[in-house]
Amino acid sequence: MRTPLGRCPASPALALLRATAFRPVDAAWRAAWAPRLAAGGAIREAARARDLRRALPHLGRAIEAAQLGGRLPVDERAILAAARLFGAASAGRLAATLDPLGAACRVEGVVPLLLKGAALHGALHPDPADRPVSDADLYVPFEAWSAMARALRAAELEPDRLTAARVDALERSAGRTSLLSDFVFRRRDGKGVPVEVKFDPVQLGAPLRRGAAFAEGATPSARYEGFAVPAPEAMAVQQALHLARHDGSDALWIAELAHGIARAAARGAFSPARALALIEGEGLATVLRAVLAAAEAMFPGTVPVALRRGATGGPAPAILRRSPRAPGAADERRATLSLQAFHAVTSRRALCVVRSLVARLR
Predict the structure, then answer these.
(1) CB burial class (10 A; 0-12, 13-18, 19+) of residue 56?
(2) Is the separation of the CB atoms in 291 and 237 below 8 Å?
(3) Cα dihedral sign, 336-320-6-301
(4) Number of helices followed by number of strands (H, E) in the chain
């Protein structure tokens, strides 16, 4: 899978992220980076590069922890200040949405599973402001939909027009259609962030046969009461398949995957066998292997060899077989379509996928 290693060769901003992401800012780091940061350029480049921009709040936190913020050029200090303000505003909007929804979920007895960025808040990202998100992704099994729908209404979250039609189709079919769709809800007052309810944790070409297994071993969110976060193995598989759909387009996403695995493995809380069991029978092991190889190339020493070697089973889609250092822009549309078609074939449910795509186009 392609990564920013190919799109940003010899990049000081990428070098900064690779040396800094989720690592202790110690004397050695400070000695190595103090003169380079003072010379300027890395933060400017990160602000310009789509692959790197998301990491600005995280990088700013590390630079301030090392007490090097004052050595940056004036314009780069301004960039990081703006990134901090943006992150704080994002964290506020997310909390304003999830806090009342979590309270409503507790009343209804449903525990949604947080996915993607919000699932990392309070853990890999202790301060949510370091990891801005534009929406909140939640997974619930279809069996919990009635309780989830009541909680959404109680929290004054309403479906958009398309979601309302999808909900109607979902309920009329008793969960047989629209399972791969996003169900988007927004606050009535227009504030906060959209909430995307999902009935499949990875949303590929066909619903996973064991999607509910992604909630096994989940623990309460350290930041948002009423929500759970995936176990390390489920989190890693979900992140990896999300990266595959986006053709490795974001450096911070790759850092979160790599260092999330490394931290869990270091405390004995990561089982490669369990990670692979989550996608058993889906034909996605080679997709997982391609993404993990890319993550290890970006952040050496983070992904256990047993996990990379265990993901076997034939070739991956052609777009994922490219070197992590291959040049060229990310092709997210092609990656998504390739992965959907690949999953349809390898899971032996091509007809199911065709029906799903037709239903989504109506």
Answers:
(1) buried
(2) no
(3) positive
(4) 16, 7
* DSSP bridge pairs for 220: 228
- Residue tagged 């990379």 (tokens): 308
Residue 164's SS3 state is: helix
CA distance 358 to 362: 7
Closest CA to 226 of 152, 164, 170: 152
Would you give the DSSP letter of residue 113? E
CB 230 within 8 A of CB 214: yes
Q: What is the pLDDT of residues 55-70, one digit of tens each?
A: 999 999 999 999 999 9
- Return the H-helix or E-strand segment holding 83: helix 74-108
3-class DSSP assignment, residue 192: coil
**Predicted confidence (pLDDT) per residue in 140-177, tens digit:** 999 999 999 999 999 999 999 999 999 999 999 888 87
Sequential DSSP letters for 17-57 = HHHHTTS---HHHHHHHHHHHHH--HHHHHHH-TTTGGGHH
pLDDT, average across residues 123-141: 97
CA 159-116-145 angle, 5° bins: 40
Q: How far apart are CA 16 and CA 35, in angstroms?
A: 12
